[in-house]
Amino acid sequence: MQTHPAKRVEIIIEAPMERRLTEVLVKAGVSGFTVLPVLGGSGRSGLWSREGQVSPAGGMVAVVCIIRPERLDGLLEAAFSVVERHIGVVSVTECEVLRAERF
Q1: How far apart are the C-alpha atoms of 12 and 4, rounded to whole Å?
Q2: What is the per-residue pLDDT across 15-66, written as a single tens digit (0 to 9) for each?
Q3: Which end of the chain has fewer beta carbons closer than 10 Å to its terminal beta carbon, N or C?
Q4: At 101, is the secondary structure helix, strand, or coil?
């Protein structure tokens, strides 16, 4: 079966910034993404967990996008416009997709 090269972009950001991030991604032409809850982790500030939080809005989310390689720069510029002033991590990895027309 033939596969096609793509980029997988994962953006981990504070949950209250999710809507702002997804809005700029759509404006940048991103046709699809998935938002996942982040249960916990560790970073420069040490270990953290959603456990014991009063509201899930105080946690983190992961926004995952798979796009064509030529669209990467626009997505990264849009994401950085939100992430640069907030807690967040952006990673990019190579991936392969089966149905390139979906991306």
Answers
A1: 26
A2: 999 999 999 999 999 989 999 999 888 777 777 676 655 455 568 999 999 9
A3: N
A4: helix
Instruction: Give me the domains of the chain, ranges plus CATH numbers.
Output: 4-102 (3.30.70.120)
Round to whole Å and give the CA distance between 10 and 74.
15
Q: Please, which residues bridge with residue 49 across strands?
A: 40
Distance (Å, rounded) from C-alpha 94 to C-alpha 11? Answer: 15
62: exposed, middle or buried (C-beta count within 10 Å: 0-12, 13-18, 19+)?
middle
Backbone angles phi, psi at 30, to 5 degrees: -70, 120
The DSSP bridge pattern shows strands 88-97 and 4-14 to be: antiparallel
Q: Which residues share a beta bridge with 53?
A: none
Within 10 angstroms of residue 47's Cβ, the number of other Cβ atoms is 8
DSSP 40-70: EEEETTEEEESTT-S-GGGSEEEEEEEE-GG
